[in-house]
């Protein structure tokens, strides 16, 4: 293999790894105290939004095992029941994969609406899982806050992610 | 590399997601069946990430201080007035404290009072705020030579912050008193009426199990109680406030939203009762 081929291969691998790496870094960075208000909610909202975006536009870059690992990391850092976020994110991914073909051609407002639906479904599932595992009716306030933050976060995130999707995360440009 | 035909590869890729989902559900069950699994993984991850967080905390603190310096230019006058006022009040309290200290010394000398031993303590920096939606905990660095410090009491300059629930080789997790799982036995007011302070996931933990005939009164001081053997008697926790009829809460003295440095006190737990406090997630 000559040098050019090697560099191109490395470039392609880096572009493939960008979505997962960016999620990983943000999850860790959002643990630094005092960056944002409602930081735990922002962290989970960011992951839900990122998994939604990449599964919709570049599913090959975010395979299921990677999503599961990111979910476990989120569980370990956020002190949620072990494996809960892994399952939730995989269910989210499965749901998006089912409607991907029709959704990917739509404009931004409809995609945002679909995202809001996904967030509400994930929030309901999270609330049910936590209540079931704790055998208690938990206060719903934090979950509702987290869902609202995730929905409001999506347009801001989309501006950055669309740019990354067309540039730094596109293996075909390597 | 193994060459597979295209249909086989497609079938495999379609199977990945369900298989991973089943694995995650299995993990939930495993974590549920064996709590130590989650604790072990969490401690390992905390220890691994501690250097990263410690490195990241310094620049963040620098930015904060810069902003503080810039902001204080604009608020200097108002801040000075507030400080002068506070200083006057503190001077009055100083007189009160000196008088009380003298009285206390006199009373102790009459009682042949045996002082309680000073506990070991060390300062620990808060390096990460790793709470979740229903969990209020912070990650602190601990010195290399520190042994297992589970159940050490964490305080900031003003009052009780929480208790260490996990300790690794260079990091420890402190469960805050506002966490849903936190139950702290407390003594209220001058006579030390017993109650339990229950974390509510909000800024103000609730008081439960107080004597119905003698409810806590607004403004009474809340101290820790030695019941249960984890906390010593008499650490300051907060002030009683009523949120509604029959709903007393505690306004903590500690600044729980902006924790930077904690002091971890190790009381001699050998002599205390071995009973586990309720709601201790590391020992179900």
UniProtKB/TrEMBL annotation, chain A:
The chain crosses the membrane at residues 16-36, 43-60, 66-91, 103-123, 143-162. Keywords: Membrane, Transmembrane, Transmembrane helix. It comes from the Bacteria. This is Rod shape-determining protein MreD.
From TrEMBL, chain B:
InterPro entries: Cell/Rod_1, Cell/Rod_MreC_2, MreC, MreC_beta-barrel_core. The gene is mreC. GO terms for cellular component: plasma membrane. GO terms for biological process: regulation of cell shape. Belongs to the MreC family. This is Cell shape-determining protein MreC. The keyword Oxidoreductase does not apply. Keywords: Cell shape. It comes from Acidiphilium acidophilum (Thiobacillus acidophilus). Residues 151-261 form the Rod shape-determining protein MreC beta-barrel core domain. Involved in formation and maintenance of cell shape.
């Amino acid at each position: 293999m000559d040098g050019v081929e090697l560099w191109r291969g490395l470039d392609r691998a880096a572009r493939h790894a960008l979505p997962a790496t960016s999620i990983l870094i943000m999850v860790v960075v959002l643990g630094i105290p005092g960056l944002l208000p409602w930081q735990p909610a922002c962290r989970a909202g960011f992951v839900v939004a990122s998994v939604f975006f990449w599964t919709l536009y570049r599913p090959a870059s975010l395979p299921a095992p990677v999503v599961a690992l990111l979910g476990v990391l989120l569980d370990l850092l956020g002190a949620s029941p072990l494996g809960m976020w892994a399952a939730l994110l995989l269910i989210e991914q499965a749901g998006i994969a089912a409607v991907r073909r029709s959704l990917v051609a739509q404009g931004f407002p409809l995609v945002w609406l679909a995202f809001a639906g996904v967030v509400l479904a994930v929030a309901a599932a999270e609330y049910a899982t936590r209540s079931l595992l704790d055998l208690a009716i938990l206060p719903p306030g934090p979950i509702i806050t987290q869902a609202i933050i995730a929905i409001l976060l999506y347009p801001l995130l989309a501006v950055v992610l669309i740019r990354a999707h067309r540039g730094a995360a596109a293996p075909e440009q390597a | 590399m193994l060459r597979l035909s295209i249909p086989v590869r497609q079938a495999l890729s379609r199977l990945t997601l369900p298989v991973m989902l089943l694995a995650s559900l299995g993990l939930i069950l495993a974590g549920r069946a064996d709590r130590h699994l989650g604790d072990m993984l969490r401690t390992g991850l905390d220890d691994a990430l501690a250097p990263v967080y410690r490195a990241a905390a310094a620049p963040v603190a620098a930015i904060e201080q810069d902003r503080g310096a810039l902001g204080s230019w604009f608020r200097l006058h108002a801040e000075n007035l507030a400080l002068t006022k506070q200083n006057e009040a503190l001077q009055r309290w100083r007189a009160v404290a000196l008088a009380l200290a003298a009285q206390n010394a006199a009373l102790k000398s009459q009682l042949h009072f045996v002082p309680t031993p000073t506990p070991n303590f060390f300062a620990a920096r808060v390096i990460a705020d790793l709470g979740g939606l229903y969990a209020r905990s912070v990650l602190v660095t601990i010195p290399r030579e520190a042994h297992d410090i589970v159940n050490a009491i964490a305080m900031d300059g003003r009052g009780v912050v929480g208790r260490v629930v996990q300790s690794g080789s260079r990091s420890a997790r402190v469960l805050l008193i506002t966490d849903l799982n936190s139950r702290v036995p407390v003594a209220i007011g001058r006579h030390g009426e017993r109650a339990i302070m229950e974390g509510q996931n909000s800024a103000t933990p609730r008081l439960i199990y107080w004597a119905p005939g003698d409810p806590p009164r607004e403004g009474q001081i809340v101290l820790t109680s030695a019941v249960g053997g984890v906390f010593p008697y008499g650490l300051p926790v907060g002030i009683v406030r009523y949120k509604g009829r029959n709903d007393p809460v505690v306004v903590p003295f500690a600044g729980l939203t902006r924790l930077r440095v904690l002091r971890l006190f190790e009381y001699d737990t050998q002599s205390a009762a071995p009973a586990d406090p309720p709601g201790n997630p590391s020992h179900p």
